[in-house]
Design brief:
single chain; mainly alpha; 2 helices; about 30% helix
Length: about 80
């Protein structure tokens, strides 16, 4: 019976594995959108646009996240104007 050979493995302990802003994990807010857009996003899997301009495909329960402060400001301004 022969002894198995193990190949050396290079380990880089200082590797940065944090999410980058481009992968969407940096923005954990619930956003204000039109109801029709939200339903279309959930049902058809299409990207939707929030009041603040963020575009994404909704997949999570928005009630688990705080509301986007920019969306709140835009909505408040729109309510004051009309």
């Amino acid at each position: 019976m022969s002894t198995p050979t193990v190949a050396p493995v290079e380990v880089t302990p200082d590797a940065d594995v944090r999410p980058t802003p481009d992968d969407g994990d940096h923005d954990r807010f619930a956003h204000y959108v039109r109801k029709s857009d939200l339903m279309r996003g959930y049902v058809e899997g299409e990207a939707i646009t929030a009041l603040c301009g963020k575009k994404w495909v909704p997949t999570r329960d928005p009630e688990r996240y705080p509301v986007c402060p920019t969306c709140v400001e835009i909505r408040a301004a729109a309510m004051r104007e009309g």
